[in-house]
Amino acid sequence: MSWSEAQRQCRLLGEDTNLASIRSKDDMDFIHMMLVDAYVRNNVTKTYIGLTLMENAYGGLQFVWSDGRPVSFTSWSVLENQPDGGNFEKCSLYNLERIHSIDNWHDVPCASAETDHFICMKPALFQTGMTFRFIDYNVDVDDVYVHCRIETLTVKVLKDFREDYN
To answer: What pTM, to 2 d.p., does this model score?
Structure first.
């Protein structure tokens, strides 16, 4: 699946749902913990996030989140000199190269099929929180993990995907 298809799949969950925007180290720590869990359970190493390279008003390129928010935090892989693709790699994923480091972002071509895993983000019912969904496109839809982050409380529950979105 491509990054563009993963974003389209998130939008099918609701018009306010996008690939995950990671706005702080706390968000990154939370998502990293979720992805380490996916790695331990299913050997998942690559997961799409919502960072994309767009042309700005001045004709230059800058990274923004798929929900339109500006970038206030980054966690690029320094071991591989990321981002390194320029105009050719305008999308991004989290490549869990080192489980003890959050610096694992990579830029990738938007149309290339890098992984079947992605994280969708939807505003939570509470104004102060976000709901992150890790989606493995190869598992039964009944086994989608829902991870909620509300202020400083972190809750991990297993929910029925259809129940939440139907």
So the answer is: 0.77
